[in-house]
Fold:
Amino acid sequence: MSQRRYGENSHFAKASHGDAVDFLLDQIRRYPNQITLIAIGPLMNVGAAIDKDATTFKKLKRVVLMGGCIKRGYGDLGYTPPVGIMPEWNILNDISSAQKLFAAGVPLYVMPLDSTQLKLDEVKRAFLFGQGTSVTDALTLLYQQWGQQTPTLFDPMTLAFVLNPNLCPVTEMHIRVDEKGFTRSEPGAPNAEVCLDSSSEDFFRFYLKRVAAK
Structure:
């Protein structure tokens, strides 16, 4: 008897949209120099888009990236001991694509671990989870499923920066992604603007007001 893959005949398993790379490139062609691409995961689609049409990709307005680890290691995340500078997850999971992005010539704004270790502590969680909105209720459920005590909000800094750049001041740097996934600050013409530090207090004042809004 042949085995079937789970959900093989279900309409839920069928693709409901086109190819992500084609969609991205098509949108850039339609709106050249107007699109901000926010990258908060491994960069497979970014690398594929550059390979497919680097000229079109270069017509992005900018890329805002959560990734890299420049001068500050992982620190105390609330559930592991502090460690030194290491390859960051999003870069490490597709080093080749990260190298392509940093060489693409697109305005690149980088929010590395240095500025994104933003801890949603017990007081902030109690405030959010007690709001009773659809958004905060969803966050409450996600928190219960996550299984760790104190979430660290790495990715939200990218959106916060787009909405309010003062929350994460940037410095022009030349960053090279090496073959092991380290993001090295080296001499050379700047290819990125990097936020090396941020105010957790300012970030959460901005974040909590937005997320708790009814």
